[in-house]
Each structure stands twice: as C-alpha cells, then as structure tokens.
Amino acid sequence: MKNSLLIEKAYHNGSFVESDKTFEVINPSTLKSIGSLPDLTVKDCQKYIKTAHKAFKSWSTTPVGERCKIVRKLFNLINEHRVEMAEIMTLESGKPINESQTEVDYANSFMEWFAEEGKRAYGETIPSLAGNAHLQTIKQAVGVVAAITPWNFPLAMITRKVAPALVAGCTVVLKPASQTPFSAIALAKLADMAGLPKGVLNVITSKDSKGIGKELATSELIRKISFTGSTEVGRTLMEQAASTIKRISLELGGNAPFLVFNDADIDKAVTGAIAGKFRNTGQTCVSINRFYVQEAVYDEFCSKLTAAVKKLQVGDGLKKPTQVGPLINQAGLDKVKEHVEDAIAKGAKVETGGKAITGLFYEPTVLSNVSPDSLVAEEETFGPICALFKFKTEEEGIALANDTPFGLAAYFFSENVRQCFRVADQLEAGMVGINAGLISNASAPFGGVKQSGLGREGSKYGLEEYLEIKYLCFGD
User: In this protein, which residues make up the domain named Aldehyde dehydrogenase (predicted)?
Assistant: First the structure.
C-alpha cells in the first residue's frame, strides 16, 4: 500500500509543485530509488523567498493564540500519521524503524512544547531612573527565516526550527537535505492539513545546496538563517550572511568525548555508551566519538563494551530486529574505513568488527589502545566505531576531552557526586550527559560552544532565537 505522505513534489505557497528537472532519492539500505523530487534552482528559491516575505505581514500579526493552535493541530496530525512518517524516514535515511518512530515522537515534542511556549514571549516594564517616562519592551517576530537541515535527523532537525519560528510569527523557507527530503514534504502536507496559511511554510527541494544556501544567506528579505550541518558549511554561511547582517543560528560538528572514571558503574556506562554511540549508526552530531577510560577500569569496560557491541543486529532498517543500519552514502562509508585503517596502522587493536559488510553497511566496531594522533581522535567519524583511549588522572581525562576545537556534547560516568560537579564544570561543551548516554529534550537548550555553533534550539531559549526585542519609551 502506497504511503499517502510520500509525495514527489516540492511545496510552495500552499501548493505542491512539480518540475521538469528532478533528482532521485536512494534508500541506503537497498541502494534503490524510493522516488524523485523537483531539482529546483536559485531562481526558484528567489520566488519562494518573496512568497514567504509577502506572507509575513499577515502571519506575524495573526494572534499568537491562533498561531499556537495551528501548531498544536499539526502536533496532533503528526501523532495520527506517526507510522507513515517513520516509514518514510527509514526509507530515505536507512535508520532502523524503531529509531525512526522514536524520532517522530522526539520531533513532535518540539511541536507540543512550542505550541505552549509560544504564548510566553513576555515583554517587561522597566523602571525609569528619572521617573518622567514609561519604559517597556515587547517581542516581535524577527522576519522571514531560512532553515537548512541535514539528512541524519530528517524530521527532528526541522521541527526544532520550524515550530518556534511559526509560533513566533515568522514565515519559513525550508531547504532539507537532498538525501532525505521526503520527511520535509510529508511535514508540509500535514501543515497544510492543519490549516497553516499559504506562504507561511515553503519547502524547496534541490541538489544545488551551495547555490540555494548562498541565496538564502545573502537575500535581503531573509532576516534569520538557522543551519544544522558541518562546521565547514556553517562557516561559509556565516560569512555569506554577514553581507546582510542577519540573525544566524548554527548547530555544527562535534567530537564528543565519553569519560569513564574509576568510580563509574561500568554496566551503566556500557549501556550509556551503546545508546550514545550507535543511534543512527553513529551518524549524529552528539554521537560519542572518543572514549576515554581511566586505567583501573579500562580492561573491564573494554571487555563489557565489546560483548555488548557484538550483540548488535545490522541490517535493513525496515526489518526487525535491526539495531544498526547503513551509512548514508559511499563517502560516509569511506570515511569510516579510513579512520579504522589509520587507527590500526598506528597500533590500535580490533576487539570486534573492523570491516565493511556489503553495500553501505559496516560492522559495529570496538578499537582499543588507540593512539592519540589517530584521525578518529581529531575528526568526527560519523559511523559505528568505538575508539578507546586510556587516561590516568581526572585532570588528564578532562584535558584530553577538551583537546578539540569542537564543543557540542560531552558525556561522563562516575558515582562520585563531588567528581560529577567538578568534571561537569570543566568540560568545554554546550551539553553534558552525566551518567547518561542520551541527553536531547525539547524543554532543554540544545547547542554547542567553540566551533560547534552559535545559539540554542529547544527550550525557552529556542523561542528567543526567532524574536527581536523592541524597546518602547512613552514620554511623560
């Protein structure tokens, strides 16, 4: 039975549109096409921007209660179509179906959160020092928003941006990744069903990521750009956006450390490691990349982690009991191979895995005694590889964890309460998981420090990213 939300069209001004030029979307599990979408141009993008700009005045002046009701209705529709949304996600990204279902729920949690939080964009009354004026602030929508999202979380990375933008009163031009655009189109269909007015949300599909990205970043009609992706691309967009001094939010690359201290509960640490490493085959920005284990518990942790990794089931995401799917494309697979081969060449031992299987699949792998000058220590692998390093003291572990230009997420396990506070304070990361391998939550701020980005998504801070503060001074 055909999935009613798998629509092979882009979405513009309340209508689904076609194009003579299209591109195919490949299922990374089967390497077969699941459909094609319009391959739109920079000229098309300019039209989409103008449409969003035209819709901004009426949407930004729509009562916030009405905006929030529509987003809440969209939340309900996503719940109703949870199975279809998850199936689309697995088809285009390859992630296991149970993970896709979890992502649909996680993505929808932003719809629910901001449908309520949007009502709380409070201004304030400010005491006048001279006493001869009334001073106030109000918050208003920043303007037309460009949202550029990645392939690894094809729905959640959209709702984290679109939900707060909509309740704030912004209109949106959304450019999803060309590898996983069908989730975005499915969301547009549900938004249409929820009664979102024409032009408020527009989804442009294209293989020309550079051209579309530059247009969105440099257009004078776009007042904010929100991007999730690589640090390299984020740096380029930031440079381009400077030409029009627009607001910018960047959620970029990571190189997350995972520290296991002597006081840790090793079984809990292994459970956290599996959760934080192998979700979406290790292809997440907050995925654990470097495992630092204190000497006294190194052998125990390595042994138990290896045993747990050996049990992971690899396969097509639509088939249960798959726990680990394919890499997204050949480039992703090649990078994993390169990192493993480099680590082995520099003395690492393969505890389990270490080989490509077939197609875009790679064995879940544990490498021990990894050299600190290995590529896997310096670069984000984005694959199912656990690279284990040994450290002696707490100070050394913290120094190794912070020895990176990135600072998105960090994790550590310890049963020593005082140590937990000390380490959490010193880790250079925007988010820290303490005795936890999964940390994302719609009510908490998501974002990094250093070269991992600017701004926060989710929570009350995520709403602020789409609002401008206006100061009002009433004379005596």
Answer: 17-471
